[in-house]
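As described in the Methods, two query proteins were run sequentially through the folding procedure within a single session, without resetting any intermediate state between them. The first query and its resulting structure tokens are shown here.
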Amino acid sequence: MKKGLIIALAGLLAVTGATAQKKTQPSWLSDAVFYQIYPSSYQDSDGDGYGDLKGIMLRLDYIQSIGVTAIWLNPVYVSGWTDGGYDVIDFYRVDKRFGTNSDLVELIRQAHARGIKVVMDLVAGHSSDQNEWFLQSKEAPDLRYSDYYIWPSFKPEDNTPAPKPGEAFDYAALMNSSAALIRKFVASDAPRGPFYIKNFYDTQPALNFGFANPDPEHPWEQAVDAPGPMAMRREIKNIISFWMDKGVDGFRVDMAASLVKNDFDKSATIRLWKEDFTKWFDEAYPEGVLIAEWFNPAQSVAAANFDIDFFCHDGQYNYSSLFFYNHRGFGANAAAAPYFDKAGQGELKTWFELYSYQYDAVHGRGYVSMPSGNHDFNRVCTEGRTNPEELKVAMTFFLTMPGVPFIFYGDEIGLKQNPNAPSTDGSGPRAGCRVPMLWDGTANGGFSTAPVGEIYIPQDPDPNRMTVEKAEADPNSLLHYVRMLLRLRKDVKALGADATWRLVSSLDQPYPMVYERRLGDECCYVVLNPSGKQVSVTLPQAVSRPEIIGGSYKKCSYKQTRKGDIVTLSPTSAVIFKF
């Protein structure tokens, strides 16, 4: 691990007052397994071509059968649908596409009856430009919602080079410089002023949580404790309370790091969460969970007291070198194959150093979670990696690592990325991972009774595509394998969220990857060989001979010798040993 990273983390924790004591977390979280559902794509109950809440209710028995204990729903609020539901018009009402508020309450009731928690998406950083708050804010400076948004009176000069065409998008840098913020100025003819500040699309004006070190020459830069930002905080708490009091079990917070503007080191945003939002939430809803979309657990979990943050596709801390065929998992293949590719030409060092830093920072305070996928990047079943045996190796990794597992809907059957899916609801290239679920061999794969041309996003066109029906009938399917892994994770605590983790194999010999999971006297080794060739590795001598408790392989041997323990694994295999 890099010395500079350690020093930076130590300084950050000192500034924010984080301690080594584990903060209060929901009693159910350490055994949780999440299942992310993009509601438009899961199950259509009324034949309009879009998934809905009643459709999810129809599939709760299936969801329970996988072995998951919690559902995360992407936004179901009333939306302008310019960014897949992340442009919210009304934070207190379910969009008619999905049903009603009463439908959501009934979904929660039915899920709870099956022992499944329900977590919503909280879009804390922005709203739709059709939201009543923004429409009023446009008119004058002294109305109720006037300071819910930011209205610059002029646009400062930006002397930094503009991003080059095709340049990789960097989420972490989104609000991390003055130049980046200036590029978020949107010209407006509103009576209020000539500009407002957005987050992503022009239809997503940023909510006003204040500025770190406001510039006196920029009168629109309010302090974080100014009346406008403080009113915005109260509104966010009202939204949280409204849904929590209806039975919701927590929130995944979209763009959680972006709230305070010009906050280059995120210290002001960390204080906002630690000293206000997460502190208040833990006291008001001790059994509720807060999940950050921050992509830096050392800040979000260790410092700001979130329960979980993601380590996946964006920012400095990501697993791109393990799973992506390019920087963000979209588009054509890059020259170098990722680690989880049958070519066996990947490396572990890049990921290991980034992950180890975050794991060490967060262990004992909360969780670094690596999801199998989500609505913003390519599925694990994508170009270059579609064979069920390859997917089993990848899912073994996702479901035996520490932290709380997150399965993106369909990944449990190998739902395949559709690279040719047309942009829908502002999805751009993300449409390919948001394809409708495939349930059976009927029209539209059982997703919808609408005409084929009217469903939300075209499904995988492969006539041999996998469906839940096919997977249930095949005892060797990925679905049954995922169920086996989740049963193991539940029964063997050394494979759980709180057990320790360390890499046993050498970075100089990437294949196979061998890591240890340990809790008390219980110890497991997970051995992964994504490559298409047989591999062997010599490990330090173990005190006892292990037994195989799970995996996917044709041949595997574990020989104990005086020079060490030699593990040999057949191509594209995964094995879980217990000592």
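Immediately afterward, the second query was submitted; its sequence and tokens are:
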Amino acid sequence: MTQAFWSSRICATKNLAVVVSFVFLQLPTLPYADESLCKRYAASPDEPGVEGVAFEKLDTKKALPACERAMKDNPDDFVSAFRLSRVLLAANRAEEALPLVKQAIEAQFLLAHNALGFMYLYGLGVDADEAKAYEAFVRGHTSGHARSTHALATFHHSGTYVERDEERAAELYRQAAFSGFPDAAFALSQMLWTGDGIPANPKEALRLLYQAADGGITDALNDLAARLINGNGVERDVNSGYRYAVKASQNGSGYAAYLMGFVQERGLGGASDISSAVWAYRVSSSRGDPLGHVSLGRLLLEGKGVKRDLVRARDLFSLAAESGSIEAQARLGEMLMSGTGGPQDVKRALKLLEAASDHPVSKYVLGMKALEKSESKLARAAGLELLRQAADSGHADAQVEAALILIRKDSGFVNDTKTAINYLARAAKQGHPEALFQYGSRLLDGDGVRVNEDRGLKMLEQAAALGNVRASAMIKIHLKIKEKEAEQLRVTKALCELQIKNYNRGSYERDDGTRLYNTRNGKHWFERSGRLVPPDQAPDYRCPQ
């Protein structure tokens, strides 16, 4: 075939392609295209055979135009009507959603009953009406909709509109959980853990908790993570607990981020990683979790793993205290009492410390105040009791202060050296500089404890590294003493060896003319009288080693 033939065929093909493209460009958009987009962006996860989008994750900017076009193309499509109602509710246009929900209900679309129930329950586009909400949930439950069954269970559990009935609530939760609704599994697990109106069943509670966590329920992930990390009601498994905390944190949980920091700071899953703990606490705090505020504030206060920032620490404690955190109230009260990180405010400090009176920090501060400011023997005794309570709870500062009082003979209290040393040991284990100094010094001297110079020096070195000046001085003094002792030992040993050498100069001449020297390495010993004696009766000169 000629080149001209092929050229004509290629041109014809190109022209046909242009024509076809033009025709398709002129065709109107097919109705099912908008319906498909509406399904992708706004379908409910409860729709059979559809992955769906959770209500809180709806992207109204994408879903709204897609579903509006779908309804415009097919006004009688009740499924698209229901999907559009979800989007309108998410966009705070509840009044426009109401007729679409009713349209879906009239078409026997069962999921719409649940939507109507929530609209009446929370007054979305309608006047709040618990009776109508309950009625809508009953219809959804009767039709087999698990979400409605769960909602109905909450009515009976809380006593909303109907009389509180834990057994009925548990049964409804069980039905919804059996249908695969994870929220219901979590709710029932909480009832079974505590025996809330029904017999407690920890084994079944744990099974349901795993079901809810595997279903992605953030509260369930948090609860399971905390239980596994702390061994609360389950066999302790820090690594598994940490993995569940990571999943919950990915869902945006501030509490989960705190749990991650808790594990990292204490090295529960391995070595401590304070930098990662600081990061996790920052995430938790940024999400508004009070435990994240307190933990980050504590590290900022101590300068542990992060640059010390007393002002920021005080602000974080203040935020957490407003959320009702007892620890935050106690720590903020301590800072206000001393004027740390900001102005002193004794009046407010006392109010916060009294509100958090059961916390060790409050007991420590109030106990020290009573001991320092009061001249009354009774008040001082009460102060020491608060201090000991804080110490028994593990507060390191309280342990040191209580120990020093119990050891001192002029403190005005009965001496209790055994308890004092125990407090010092516990505080030293927590890395308290003064406790390391006090306990380390006692290990060197054998004061109340068995002498252990190596361990004592290590403690003093730790205390010195943490800024304890007296520990540095004690190390220098101890080293000088050891040098003097070593020199004295060297001199003593040299003198002893000289004495033995002089003694060994004597000898004994035997009948055969040989001479036996008086040496410790010989087979025999002799006295200067010349009499041979067996080794076990010979003089025993031993020099210090």
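The two ends are 113 Å apart (CA to CA). We note this only descriptively and draw no conclusion about the first query from it.
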